[in-house]
Amino acid sequence: MAVPVLLVAGFLGAGKTTVVNHLLQHAEGRRIAAVVNDFGAVNIDAELIADTADGVVSLANGCICCTLEGDLLRTLATLLQRDPRPDVIVIETSGVADPADIVRNLMDPVIFREAPLETVLCVVDASMPVARLDDALLRSQVRAADIIALSKVDLVDAAGAALIRDAVRALRPSAVVIDAVNGEVPAALLFAPEIDRVLREPGPRRPAVERFETLSWTSDRPLSLSRLQAAIGRLAPKLARAKGIFEAVEQPGRAMVFQLAGGRATLAAGGTRADGVPRTRIVFIAELGALTREEVDGIMQGCIEQGAP
Question: Is 186 in the same domain as 102?
Fold first, then answer.
């Protein structure tokens, strides 16, 4: 029996992982296998995915629309060999991925017969300026979507939400546009029972353009919260996105999750740190040339208090 695929796309910091986590936590008895692609050597998103998935496969240090294309197809083949097979495969792309290129890969007749692409979901940050939709990559992500989920609608007023809603509908008139408060997207929209699936036309291949780079920073020592806040304040103007898991001096032994998206930084409890991993793993994503390794290392080293364990 074929295993349908849900492709979750969206720009850096849009809220894809929140949507995937909500889906996994409300699986309603489905066995869901999650494939998570993070643009960097440290796959923070895979660590943040709920453990209710039927196995999380991490594809890191590249983008599945280009450099990891073969890894994605091999991963799907491996998932399909599981006994029992998953009921659904969810693929969360990196924020720099063009879904059209991934759709093209999934249209391989052999893959499509066993793992047909059922739905493309694009998560869009409703709090961003509408002018951001002029970005070619973001527009391509929206135009590939069957469903557009507006995240962070609670951060904008009704007029602002209406503006972004109208803008994405103009880009993709055929898509269903919904508000996804706290990542909630109705499963009934994503998984239609017993449907006839047809091959899609992904459109012309866009030339690959390297636009972003990642700089990962790790440490086996805890960080000072106040110093981290100051460090992020210095780095933020040059960042497109940042995310990580760390241990704070103020709360020893407990992992904390750090996120920077759309100029907003948040902290949340992350549970207990796993054995064998550094206390701090943070990924910084910036336009090419905006940051240097020396700059990141110099600023982040200042977050470590002298004498901290």
Answer: yes
Look up the domain containing 254 and give its range. Answer: 212-301
Residue 207 lies in a domain: no
Please state, in angstroms and rounded to a whole number, the distance separating the CA atoms of residues 268 and 279: 15
pLDDT in tens, 190-243: 876 655 566 676 666 655 567 788 889 999 999 999 999 999 999 999 998 888
**Residue 288 placed within a domain:** yes
pTM metric for this prediction: 0.77
Q: Is the pLDDT confidence value at 39 over 70?
A: no
Percentage of the chain with pLDDT > 90?
37
